[in-house]
C-alpha cells in the first residue's frame, strides 16, 4: 500500500461526508442556491490567496530544482488559472472588486488557512504537502465524480466549476502532489508518519467545515463584525 493509500483509508469517512455534503451535491445537480455559491466564491477567493502561499513555501523548502519549479508552476496556475475562474464568477454573480477586497474571512476560513500556513511555515516539506494534499486531491475527486452527473458540465452556473476541477490539468497537478507525498514518506519514522496522517485528517476535516460554512452562509455574528 502506498502512503497516500494509507492516508485515504484513514480519512475515508471524512471524504465520504465531503462528497455527500449538500453543497457539493447541489453543485453537481445544479440545485445549489445561488446565494450559497456567491458566499462560497468570496470566501474561496480569500482562501486561495493564503493557500497559494503554501506553494511558494513549498519552493522554499524543496531540496531539488525540479520540485522547486513544480511548486512555482502550481503557484502560477493557482493565481492565474484557478483564481481567474473566481474572478469570472465574481462578474457573473455581480461581486464587485471592492466587495472582494473588503470581504471578511469567516471564522472557518481563517481557521483553515491559518492552520495550513502554520504547518507550512513551521513544519517539514512532507508536513506542508500533507496539509495541501486533501485540498487538491479531494477537489479533483469531487470534480470528476460530479462530471459524471448528466448535465453537470453544461450547467449555466456551476458547469465551469465542475469543468475546472475535473480537468486533466488539475488532475495532473494533484497526481504530482500525491507522488511527492509518497516519495517524502519513504524512510520516515512511525512517529513522523503519524504526524503526517494527523495533518492530512485535519485538513480533510477543514474541507468539510468549509463546505458547511459556504452552505449556511456563515459569517461572524452581526454584532461583532
Ligand atoms: C477550500 C478549498 N479547498 C481546495 C481548493 C482547491 O484548490 C479550493 N479552491 N478551496
Short description:
With about 220 residues, the chain is mainly alpha-helical.
Main attributes of the structure:
80% helix, 225 residues, Heme Oxygenase, Chain A, binds 4-amino-5-hydroxymethyl-2-methylpyrimidine, mainly alpha
Task: Give a description of the structure.
This protein has 225 residues and is mostly helical. It has one domain (3-217): Heme oxygenase-like (Heme Oxygenase, Chain A, Up-down Bundle). It contains ten helices and no strands. Helix 7 crosses helix 10. The longest helix is centred in the N-terminal third of the chain and has 28 residues, at 34-61. The model has no long low-confidence stretch (mean pLDDT 97). It binds 4-amino-5-hydroxymethyl-2-methylpyrimidine (HMH). The site of 4-amino-5-hydroxymethyl-2-methylpyrimidine has 9 residues, from helix 3, helix 7 and helix 10.
Layout of strands and helices, then pairs:
Blueprint: H1 3-20, H2 22-29, H3 34-61, H4 65-92, H5 97-102, H6 107-122, H7 125-147, H8 159-166, H9 168-185, H10 190-216
Helix pairs in contact: 1-10, 3-4, 3-6, 3-7, 3-10, 6-7, 6-10, 7-8, 7-9, 7-10
The structure holds 4-amino-5-hydroxymethyl-2-methylpyrimidine.
4-amino-5-hydroxymethyl-2-methylpyrimidine (HMH) binds next to helix 3, helix 7 and helix 10.
CATH topology: Heme Oxygenase, Chain A
User: What's the CATH class, please?
Assistant: Mainly Alpha
The end-to-end span amounts to 48 Å
Mean pLDDT metric? 97
Sequence of secondary-structure elements: HHHHHHHHHH
What is the number of beta strands? Answer: 0
Q: What is the strand content?
A: under 5%
* Tally of discrete structural domains: 1
Which stretches are low in confidence, meaning pLDDT under 50 for 5 or more residues running? none
Rg from Cα = 17 Å
Fourth CATH level, the homologous superfamily: Heme oxygenase-like
Q: Tell me, what's the shape?
A: globular
Largest sheet: none
Structural class: mainly alpha
- Count every helix, treating DSSP H or I runs of 4 or more residues as helices: 10
